[in-house]
Design a protein that fits this description.
It is a single chain. By secondary structure, this protein is of the alpha/beta class. The protein has 2 domains: 100 residues, ATPase, nucleotide binding domain (Nucleotidyltransferase, domain 5), CATH 3.30.420.40; 95 residues, Nucleotidyltransferase, domain 5. It is 31% helix and 29% strand. The strands form 2 sheets. Strands 3-2-1-4-5 form a 5-stranded mixed beta sheet. A 5-stranded mixed beta sheet has the order 8-7-6-9-10, with helices on both faces. α1 crosses α2. It is globular.
């Protein structure tokens, strides 16, 4: 029996950019996306963007199967905005058919970033990484670091996540790991610290709401 196609709305506001995606995530299915300035502007643009994407897809909010949001780590302002918006949307569709509103699914931001790096490597024709170190700027001279191991079937297993001072954050980024970090927060600072000082190739991409995975 075929698996029913889900309708999902995903929100990512962990960094200085906001990303919103609408779709099922199934291969070949369309995805409606928006990326723009985040942080303080997210509270002004998030609801209009969601409304515009729903209109493009021809879907009503109540027709969605679930709401997905990045739970962090990341920007406090962005995460607070995403939590408030998702909670309001989920609660607002309560009715006879949905007495408890829409389900809400939190996703780890570092895991989403690791999946994005894995997707970009596959898209570039490179071998799938066995280990991925995902980095986000934690401010105050620290960064969030999550180390992940990729299995033969393509899933990414959580190994470690914490905040570290710059000088010690390089430790999870050695031993052949593919290192990825957000473009806006750490590209300028950490390319020299991690890439030049340790001979590790560093790539940069923002975590996206359309969490593109190489999983079948």
């Amino acid at each position: 029996m075929p698996v029913p196609t889900l309708r999902l709305l995903a929100i990512e506001t962990s960094t200085d950019r906001v990303s919103v995606a609408l779709g099922s995530g199934s291969p070949g299915e369309p995805i409606w996306q928006h990326t723009g300035p985040g942080a303080a502007q997210a509270s002004l643009t998030l609801l209009p963007v969601i409304g515009a994407l729903l209109a493009q897809a021809g879907w009503a909010l109540a027709e969605l199967d679930a709401l997905v949001f990045a739970r962090g780590p990341g920007s406090f302002t962005g995460l607070r905005t995403a939590c408030a918006v998702v909670q309001g949307l989920a609660y607002g569709v309560r009715g006879a058919g949905r007495p408890e509103g829409l389900p809400v699914l939190p996703v780890d931001t570092l895991a989403a970033l690791a999946e994005e790096a894995r997707f970009l490597q596959a898209e570039a024709g490179l071998p799938a990484p066995r280990r991925v170190a995902a980095l986000l700027d934690a401010r105050m001279g620290e960064m969030y670091v999550g180390a992940y191991r990729c299995t033969d079937v393509g899933s990414t297993n959580f190994a470690r996540a914490d905040s570290f001072p710059y000088c010690t954050a390089v430790q999870p980024c050695t031993d052949g790991a593919t290192v990825c970090g957000d473009c806006d927060g750490i590209a300028c600072v950490f390319r020299a610290i991690i890439g030049d000082a340790n001979g590790v190739a560093v790539s940069f991409a923002n975590p996206t709401a359309a969490n593109r995975s190489t999983d079948p």
